[in-house]
Amino acid sequence: MSTPQMMLIKPRDRYGASLIFSILGLFALMMYILFKLQSSEPAPSHKNSFIVPPVTHKPIYLMTSKPSALLYAKSGHSLEEYTAKIKQFAKLIHTLGYTTKMIPSSELSSLPNDAILFIVDTPAMTQKTKNAVKSFVQNGGNLFFNFTAGYSDENGKYLGSTFVHALTGLSLNKRLGFVTFKDEKGNGSLFVTPKLLSPLSLYLPEGKNLFVVLYDKVPLYDTPATLQPDIMATSFSQATPPVGIDAAKSIRQQEAGMAWHGYYGKGKWVYTAIPSYSFTDNREQEDDFKKLLSGIIAYLAKPVSAKIYPFIDNKGAIFISEDTEYKFTNFERFADLAKEYRFPVTAFIVANLAQKPEHKAMMQRIAQNPYVEFASHSTSHKQIVGKSEAYIINETAGSKKILDKFASSPIQGFRPPREELNDLMRKHLAQSGFTYILGATEEHLYPEFDKKEPNLLIIPRHGTDDFSYLVNLDWDQDQIVRQMIREANFVTALNGIYTLSIHTHLFAYSTNINIMKKFFHYLSQHPEFKIIGGKALYQKVRLAKHLSQKLEQKGKQYIMTVTNDNDTAVNDLYIQLFKNPKAKITSGSVNNKNITVKINNSQSNVFLNTVPAKSTVKIYFTLENMKG
Ligand SMILES: [Zn+2]
User: Fold this and answer.
1) Alpha-helical regions (H) of 169-285
2) CA of 344 to the centre of ligand 1 (A)
3) How far is the CA of 522 from the centre of ligand 1 (A)?
4) What is the structure's pLDDT at 420?
5) What domains, with CATH codes, occur in the chain?
6) Are 447 and 238 in contact (CB under 8 A)?
7) How far apart are CA 515 and CA 478, in angstroms?
8) Which of 93, 349, 390, 448 has the most crowded Cβ, counting Cβ within 10 A?
9) From ligand 1's centre to the CA of 193, what distance in Å?
10) How close is the Cα of 391 to the center of ligand 1, in Å?
11) In sequence order, which residues have a C-beta less than 8 Å from that of residue 467 and are 6 or more positions away?
């Protein structure tokens, strides 16, 4: 095929960038998305702009490509537009404290061996350039590239994902190919979530939902089994891939990858499917995108990076809870199921119902069930927000007083009726000894401590709840179970917490309990899912918050310093290493003979059986074959 299979549509935004490929060899004119940011006013300059010290003082190279500039010009853009984009991205890198250098594609062979090279928005490259890039990485170079890199030759001939594939193993997805992401109003709309246990999310540890500005179709890829995406396209709830794309087709988890990292020979690469303007054009989350780019650069600059597991001994977690309210006696069915499968579950109980004489015997029976943690769903289950302080105290502290009498140890959890929470509620919850709240959908995956009440953990709700399933969606049981499994897999793949929240009068009622039974059965067959109760979750997140690690390098020697600032020991701690898979740890030692350290080369992780309270542990190891 000699006709160019791509075209450009004149952009209506500042930075341009409507580089669009037609799929299936058609000259289909893609609709330019008239998407504008939330506000058309220029955003106010951010005073507390994100900045961390740069991890390298060496320059970051940005490749310029003549064929790409010509391709832009050929497609109705100005010749300068391509260069303007590269300069724009270089400017962004500058704001992070790095220096940059432009390098023409013809001069790649002059790059230092371990340089960092950025190939930004560069669709057209000669085969010679592609080979030069490959051998640069092969020999130890560090590459960032994106979007439609090398999708065409110097004449504009469409070649598909061959260049991306050669370096990464990713292939353009055949089912969906390039996709327009849009919301119900047809506006460009894509949320992405960086995985927590990824070297790229070093400065975005909470699994924030990032809104990506898009004027173009974005390539979807099939991720080979040897790779895992670092960033995935997500829905607003972060529990599934986005819904409502082209032709009402839904994206599968395996197709939702948006960025990856890996090795090619001795060097490493980061590839993302999103265009460069996505890093700058969301002015509301400007700092978050800077954090993302800083993480990418840090990964490329350092030979090895490390990260503590988000849940200490686990990469992801599952939290199952019941709002124990109407049809109160169904509580026992939920409790029995937890016992049968030995899954720790949490019951948010309406205190007034618990103390009814007819429920007393049942409450006492369930209190003996070691798999059920009691927590509060307020005193009366009526609206709390907007009421007097005395009323709020009774609904929060008051409910604890009642429920503590039933529980074997003081309750710690609260779930606000109607998922409504205000400052006054938070204050009295913290004061009366509550430590965690199961809230509504937040914009992050990982539980976070409240900004005003630093001892109160807010657990975001990610899973679809039983009310939505049964009332809004009206799905059949198997359909619901399939969706629950899908969500549990998706959220835990991002190292978040999948929260399944049910009700006594919905999933615990009548034959609906079979949905729970089927889901519990599935979980029991997949021990990689760790089910966790509220108190244990609070404890792990609190411990993780006061743990840190640092990795220093001296030649082949590495020193990992693990600091535990908690006033309790941390047991069974895992730390993930991000290194060349060919590199092996050949010897190691630890500066405390009471600690057992295990290094797993195939999993690339470090295990410590304990880190004593208020202490620092140093682990020394040697990495052989670091460069493949
Ligand atoms: Zn409720």
Assistant:
1) none
2) 20
3) 27
4) 93
5) 6-39+55-308 (3.40.50.880), 317-540 (3.20.20.370), 546-624 (2.60.40.1170)
6) no
7) 7
8) 349
9) 29
10) 18
11) 503, 506
Q: Look up residue 337 and give its two tokens.
A: 């199921």
Q: Give me ligand 1 centre to Cα 543, in Å.
A: 30
CA 416 to ligand 1 centroid distance, Å: 8
Distance CA 301, CA 95 (A): 17
> Any idea what the Cα angle at residue 34 is, between residues 91 and 251, rounded to 5°?
90
Give distance in angstroms: CA of 169 to centre of ligand 1.
Answer: 48
| Distance between Cα 322 and ligand 1 center (Å) | 9
Query: What is the distance in A from the centroid of ligand 1 to the CA of 383?
Result: 10
CA of 367 to the centre of ligand 1 (A): 21
Cα-to-centroid distance, 325 and ligand 1 (Å):
6
Burial class (CB in 10 A: 0-12, 13-18, 19+), 454: exposed
Q: Is 0.85 surpassed by the pTM of this model? A: yes
| Cα 563 to Cα 545: distance, rounded to the nearest angstrom | 11
Write down the pLDDT at residue 246.
Answer: 53
The pLDDT averaged over each successive group of 10 residues in the chain (628 residues) is 32 31 27 29 50 92 96 85 94 96 97 97 97 97 98 95 98 92 72 96 94 92 95 92 66 95 96 96 94 97 95 96 98 98 98 97 97 98 96 98 97 96 96 96 92 95 92 91 96 96 96 97 96 98 97 91 98 96 86 92 94 97 78
Could you tell me the two tokens for 42? 């220029």
Quick one: tokens of 393? 């105290």
CB atoms within 10 A of CB 97: 15
pLDDT at 56: 94
The CA 188 to ligand 1 mean position distance, Å, reads 35
Compute the distance from residue 286 Cα to the ligand 1 centre, in Å.
37
Measured in Å, residue 382 CA sits from the centre of ligand 1 at: 9
DSSP string spanning 571-615? EEEEEEEE--TT-EEEEEEES-TT--EEEETTTTEEEEEEE-TTE
CA of 377 relative to ligand 1 center, distance in Å: 7
Q: Length of the chain in residues, anyone?
A: 628
Give the distance (Å) from ligand 1 centre to CA of residue 361: 22
Cα of 323 to ligand 1 centre, how many Å?
Answer: 6
What spacing in Å lies between the alpha carbon of 186 and ligand 1's midpoint?
35
Dihedrals φ, ψ of 437, to 5°?
A: -130, 135
Q: How far is the CA of 579 from the centre of ligand 1 (A)?
A: 47
Enter the tokens of residue 612.
Answer: 């004593």
The predicted pLDDT at position 442 comes to: 85
> From ligand 1's centre to the CA of 481, what distance in Å?
22
| DSSP state for residue 260 in the 8-state scheme | E
C-beta of residue 549 within 8 angstroms of C-beta of residue 563: yes
Residue type, 145: F
